Amino acid sequence: MNSEVAHPSVAQGEIKTSPEAIQKVNLLGMSRSEMEKFFEDMGEKKFRAGQVMKWIHQFFVTDFAEMTNISGKLREKLEKICEIKAPEVVHRNYSKDGTRKWVFRVGDGEGSLVETVLIPAEDKTGERKTLCISSQVGCALDCSFCSTGKQGFQRDLTPAEIIGQLWMANFSYMEEVPVAERERSVTNVVMMGMGEPLLNYDAVLSSMSIMLDDFAYGMSKRRVTLSTSGVVPKIDQLAKDIDVALAISLHAPNDELRNELVPINKKYPLEQLIAACQRYITKDGNESARKHVTIEYVMLDGVNDKPEHAQQLLKLLKNLPSKINLIPFNPFPHAPYGRSSRNRIIAFQKTLSDAGFVCTIRQTRGDDIDAACGQLVGQVADRTRRAAQWKKKIAEKNEILRSEG
Ligand code: SF4
Q: What mean pLDDT is reported for the chain?
């Protein structure tokens, strides 16, 4: 349920707004079942939910007056108690290579900002536009190579704030287009921006159901991917609740190294994580999005990119249908790692490809607008003392090295 605002009291066609219930209900983040219930509670037919969802998510209309297949009386009623409100865009930047980036304000605090990046690419099905969506403001998991982790955790995003990122990305292509000619542009979504999506489970699940809904974005389930650092119990829950593609931020082929790079590994070590991935895979024919898992592996110079790491990875994944995506690291200020050399990345890829894995190297895009993966926080203000502590730790380490050397 969209719990971001208290609903005004709605009973059998009559709107009762109590003095304290002044905040309007934001319809943007409501799934179809929630919106059907909302209309039924108003004494309206539930098919109205599908009509309104189409206006919002397919024609990008935020003014009820433009919803011409809905009676004037109902439009007036909706106007009084509802709104359709995407998060406020405080910064937008469109790269020469087609990459687009938005910074959204999602609260009053100085650091209440999240980022969304859209990356275009060509594939055999035509032009692809992949949107990387954030699920939390900051992140509590503190992966050592991730700039978001250095910001600490502020709060979960609501469904309206999550789906609002997709709405805005589509709308950015439609602003000048007449309502009747508007169509959706984003073809793929990855829940891979700021935050760990499985730690904001209900809001992410509800948002993904809107992405898949034919009355909203109608996206193919194979084109909606949730990326997790490995919250094992929630992977099992996800398998029961929805059919979307799964990606794992793996980044290390053994527990010792992964404990350091992705600390949640101490709670859910590799054996448990790989077993959860195997359970997630279905044998339900080609229709399922769950035929394989995508393994994300950031290439850190001299840390996880050696030939023995490639061999360990082969062993780890030998019984898991998977595709591997190698990500050249994008250093951020005070990052304790560097990017692996091109030759090192290609050699790593060759080892995996020769063993029969589909293994790709992610192209870095949008460098001119600071939109590459791992730089999502960009200029976002530091909301906790974690970044300061991190810088202090690096300075101390450098001091020790200087005095030893
Ligand atoms: S990599 Fe993902 S899970 Fe890890 S700190 Fe960054 S945002 Fe959080």
A: 87
Angstrom distance (rounded) from CA 185 to CA 50: 20
Atom of ligand 1 nearest to the CA of 262: 4
398 is in an annotated binding site: no
51-69: pLDDT as tens digits: 999 999 999 999 999 999 9
Q: SS3 for 246? A: strand
Task: Pick one of 3.30.1310.10, 1.10.150.530, 1.10.340.30, 3.40.50.720 as the CATH number of 9-83.
Answer: 1.10.150.530
Helix (H, G, I), strand (E, B) or coil at 32: helix
Q: Where in the chain is the domain with CATH 3.20.20.70?
A: 88-390
DSSP string over 304-325: T-SHHHHHHHHHHTTTS-EEEE
Prediction pTM value: 0.87
Q: Range with the lowest mean pLDDT among 221-225, 378-382, 390-394? A: 378-382
Percentages helix, strand, coil for the chain (3-state, rounded to 5) are: 40, 20, 40
What residues line ligand 1, using a CB cutoff of 6 Å? 139, 141-143, 146, 148-149, 194-196, 229, 249
d(CA 236, CA 281): 11
- For the CA of 147, the closest atom of ligand 1 is 6
Measured torsion, CA atoms of residues 201, 202, 208, 209, in degrees rounded to the nearest 10: 150
Interval 205-228: pLDDT, tens:
999 999 999 999 999 999 999 999
Burial class of residue 274 in the structure, from the number of CB atoms within 10 Å of its CB (0-12 exposed, 13-18 middle, 19+ buried): buried
Nearest by Cα to 111 from 92, 132, 136: 136
Q: Which residues contact 132 (CB under 8 A, 6 or more apart)?
A: 116, 117, 118, 119, 190, 192, 193, 373, 376
